[in-house]
Design a protein that fits this description.
- The protein is built from nine helices and no strands.
- The protein is mainly α.
- The two termini are about 35 Å apart.
- The radius of gyration is 18 Å and the shape is globular.
- It has a single domain, classed as Rhopdopsin 7-helix transmembrane proteins.
- Helix 1 packs antiparallel against helix 2, helix 1 runs parallel beside helix 8 and helix 7 runs antiparallel to helix 8.
Length: about 240
C-alpha cells in the first residue's frame, strides 16, 4: 500500500479523537452546537475510514458511506454546528430541520443507485474512480455542492468571525489562533475536494489529513483554559466554534 493510500487511516484516527472530545463537551454543556459538530466529525471519520477500506477491496455499502458521509454531508453538519454556536435564533432550528430532511433525502438517493462495481480498481483511490462507479446523471451528485458550500461558508466564516471578535477585544489569543486554524483546516479540505471533482483525486487524502490535524489542533487550542484573568473577559463574551 502506498503512503498516500495510508493517509485516510491516519485521518480516521485523528477524527475519532476529535469526535470523542466534542461529544464529551456536549455531554457537559448540552449545547446543541457541539452535537451537530460531533455528528459532522463522526461523518468525516466514517468517510475517511471508507476511503481507506475501498483502497483494499470493493464493498457497495462502504462506498455509500464514503460518498454520503465523506463527500456530501459532513461539511454541512460541521458548518451548521458553527452557526448554532454563534447564532441563538429560532430560524436556526428551521435550518436544522431542513438539514435533517436534506440528509435523509440524500441518503435515500444513494441507496437507490445501481453502482457499477466493474469500474472499481483495487489500490486506486476511490476519489479517482467514483465517477465511473456511480451511474451517469445520479441526482445525489447535484445535492453535494449545496451541502458543501453551506458547510464551508458557515464553518470558515464562523471561525474567522469568532477570531476577529477575540482579536478586536485583545483577549483570549489562544482562541484567535485556534479559530484561524479551524478555518484554515476547513479551507484545505474544501480546496482538496474541489481538486478531486476536477479530476485530481490524488490530493484529496493529504487535504483531509491536513484538515483533520489543523481543525483538531485549533479545537484544542481554543478550548484550552485561558491565562487571562476572569475579570478581563467578564464584561463581554464572544462565541467560538470550538
Amino acid at each position: 500500500m502506498s503512503l498516500n493510500n495510508m493517509l485516510p487511516f491516519i485521518s480516521t484516527a485523528i477524527m475519532l479523537l476529535f469526535t470523542i472530545s466534542v461529544f464529551q463537551r456536549y455531554a457537559v454543556r448540552r449545547n446543541p452546537a457541539f452535537l451537530y459538530w460531533g455528528i459532522g466529525l463522526a461523518m468525516f471519520g466514517a468517510g475517511s475510514f471508507a476511503e481507506a477500506f475501498l483502497v483494499l477491496k470493493w464493498n457497495s455499502a462502504i462506498f455509500v458511506v464514503w460518498y454520503l458521509f465523506g463527500a456530501a454531508l459532513n461539511a454541512a453538519w460541521l458548518g451548521h454546528g458553527t452557526l448554532a454556536l454563534l447564532v441563538q435564533k429560532r430560524w436556526v432550528t428551521v435550518l436544522t430541520v431542513l438539514l435533517v430532511i436534506g440528509s435523509v433525502i440524500a441518503g435515500i438517493m444513494m441507496l437507490q443507485l445501481t453502482l457499477n462495481s466493474g469500474a472499481y480498481e483495487t489500490g486506486v483511490a476511490i476519489s479517482n474512480t467514483y465517477r465511473e462507479i456511480m451511474p451517469e446523471g445520479a441526482k445525489v451528485r447535484l445535492t453535494t455542492p449545496f451541502f458543501n458550500i453551506y458547510g464551508l461558508i458557515m464553518l470558515v466564516g464562523g471561525a474567522l468571525y469568532s477570531a476577529f471578535l477575540f482579536w478586536r477585544k485583545r483577549v483570549l489569543p489562544n482562541r484567535v489562533i485556534g479559530n484561524v486554524l479551524i478555518a484554515a483546516g476547513a479551507l484545505s479540505i474544501g480546496f482538496a475536494s474541489s481538486l478531486a471533482r476536477l479530476g485530481y483525486g490524488e490530493y484529496l487524502y493529504i487535504g483531509e489529513l491536513v484538515a483533520a490535524v489543523m481543525m483538531y489542533s485549533g479545537f484544542l487550542m481554543a478550548a484550552a483554559p485561558s491565562k487571562v484573568p476572569a475579570k478581563a473577559t467578564a464584561p463581554e463574551k464572544a462565541p467560538s466554534p470550538a
